[in-house]
Specification:
- By secondary structure, this protein is of the alpha/beta class.
- The chain has two domains: 254 residues, Rossmann fold; 49 residues, no CATH class.
- The protein is built from 14 helices and nine strands.
- A five-stranded parallel sheet has the order 5-4-3-6-7. A two-stranded antiparallel ribbon has the order 1-2. Strands 8-9 form a two-stranded antiparallel ribbon.
- A hairpin with a 6-residue loop joins strand 8 and strand 9.
- Helix 1 packs across helix 9 and helix 7 crosses helix 10.
- The chain is globular and about 70 Å long.
Length: 329
């Protein structure tokens, strides 16, 4: 942005270029634009209803902190109660800093935060799990295990707290990246499932919503800087193992060369979701832990058995785990 860039609304000095609008905005009008966009998303797609108890999945990163901040800000107008649920995976040198940022904002907002720890739920931290995965030749990547465990803990914790909705901080960039990864893996079920809100069906599953679905990562970052929402710029040490890492860089490179690329990909994703059939099967209870699962044994229990020989013995040993995995369980 050049020094002479001016807000197209009032002519004041601009602070950001907004691709969606195709023009620049000053501090005041950018904040107004961003907040109005998120609020209209919540209302237009009926992501929340009066009386909802919304649990915000907060990691301490900019996206989840912004989601917590805005839902609390809009809570009176929307008639909702807001709490926060966080997951401590056990990543030394990373998670403690993010949780501190979360605690600071929660105190500022007057929002209660509830924390679920991998060690309490699965008897192992992610750092310890990565050690086991490394010994086994990284047949599974750290992000695969972490993602399954995190979703398990967030849903269980939110449900036990009486939440009627579980809000996540996924922004437009996240959605584009996941869509591309699902397409690369021909994961049709993933394409259909990853929308702005999850289906409400399924005993034990708290419906998920994504208030930041239509705003970019750069816009979220700009908003946090303007509003003083602080988070330490530390990155998970295991991101280098994730497919998302190179996909993210590629998407950003294409966006730089062809502005609007991300919006076009999101549009393709929504058209694909409408055209594709709903995946077969419903939600049942895991025969091991009793939590919701699309298969007889949930992925969290399968991963736990893979990592813990004692737990695996309860399921009939690793041969059974291997057979269940091969059968798509």
């Amino acid at each position: 942005m050049g020094r002479t860039a001016r807000c197209f609304v009032c002519g004041s000095k601009a602070v950001a270029y907004v691709p969606y609008l195709g023009d620049y905005l000053c501090r005041e009008h950018f904040v107004e634009y961003f907040e109005r966009r998120v609020l209209e998303t919540l209302k237009t797609f009926r992501l929340v209803e009066p009386g909802d108890r919304v649990a915000v999945a907060v990691s301490g990163g900019k996206d989840s902190l912004t989601t917590l901040y805005l839902l609390k800000r809009f809570s009176g107008e929307l008639g909702i109660e807001v709490i926060g649920v966080a997951v401590d995976e056990g990543i030394a040198g990373y998670r403690e800093y993010k949780l501190k940022a979360l605690a600071d904002l929660a105190e500022r907002l007057g929002v209660r935060i509830f924390i679920g720890r991998f060690e309490d739920y699965f008897g192992i931290t992610l750092d310890e799990a990565v050690g086991v995965l490394k010994e086994k030749g990284f047949e599974y990547k750290p992000c695969s295990v972490c993602g399954v465990f995190r979703r398990y803990v967030m849903n269980k914790l939110a449900r036990e707290l009486g939440a009627t909705k579980l809000a996540t901080g996924h922004n437009l960039d996240d959605e584009v990246q996941v869509f591309i990864m699902n397409a690369l893996k021909a994961h049709i079920e993933g394409v259909v499932r990853e929308g702005i809100a999850s289906a409400t069906g399924g005993e034990g599953l708290v419906p998920r919503i994504k208030p930041l679905y239509f705003v970019t990562e750069k816009e979220v970052l700009t908003y946090t800087l303007l509003k003083g929402i602080q988070t330490p710029f530390v990155e998970c040490p295991y991101i280098v193992y994730a497919l998302r890492h190179p996909v993210r860089h590629w998407v950003n490179e294409v966006e730089d060369e062809a502005p609007g690329f991300k919006y076009r990909v999101l549009a393709v994703k929504e058209l694909a979701r409408k055209a594709l059939p709903e995946p077969p099967g419903g939600v049942q209870k895991c025969v091991v832990c009793g939590e919701p699962s699309s298969k007889p044994v949930c992925k969290a229990c399968l991963f736990r058995a893979y990592l813990d020989p004692e737990f695996a013995a309860k399921l009939g040993g690793l041969k059974l785990i291997s057979r269940l995995r091969d059968e798509g369980v």
